[in-house]
């Protein structure tokens, strides 16, 4: 396969990297993203499949956690350079949800934002606190002259257009006014919601719940986002969702979502 002329950066909530490793490797082989940001590893650092990832032609950095959370950044034919491995703001927060690296000339922040359910309650409070920390940190990145991309599972449905039917989700943390307001505040710094900007009239779902045949009915949500800063946005050429991955047997409930940039 000839090397593409653009740089592809993708996000993929694998929902368990060990059981989903064959799917991940198949996707890497077929789509060949230059940078792949993974969320919800559900594995410790020692359990991360480093050898298999390297055999597929990727360098990797990761932050694992037993049974939950966990993020990683894979870089094709290169080694990612670590910038930070936690979001500043709460020293006692040990959840593995943020990894920032330099990869192929772009600073990439890989995000697994808290789900926040059930709400109201402590988990929703934590989600909003984490979001505020992200907004503060993002402010230090957005105006950089260097290209920066925030990417990952934000656990935010930005508008009712980004969900198949909001009726049964009104109480869900992903649709709460506070959640949407935080996302809008982040975008207002100068970040661009690439999928919505390029596809203003298409829902572009990235997640389909396992229950009630959501995948079979295409009853999806858009919660995986790719946000370039003003320095990077002019290089954006395309974006999309690799829906075929969600259709695999025992697949993750997310599909990989990607952005193509001028090199």
Automatic annotation (TrEMBL):
Cofactor requirement: Mg(2+)
The entry's keywords: Hydrolase, Magnesium, Metal-binding
Domain Endonuclease/exonuclease/phosphatase as annotated: residue spans: 10-254
Taxonomic superkingdom: Bacteria
Residue runs in coiled coils: none
One MF annotation (Gene Ontology) recorded for this entry: double-stranded DNA 3'-5' DNA exonuclease activity
EC number: 3.1.11.2
Entry's family note: Belongs to the DNA repair enzymes AP/ExoA family.
Protein name in UniProt: Exodeoxyribonuclease III
Gene, per the UniProt record: xth
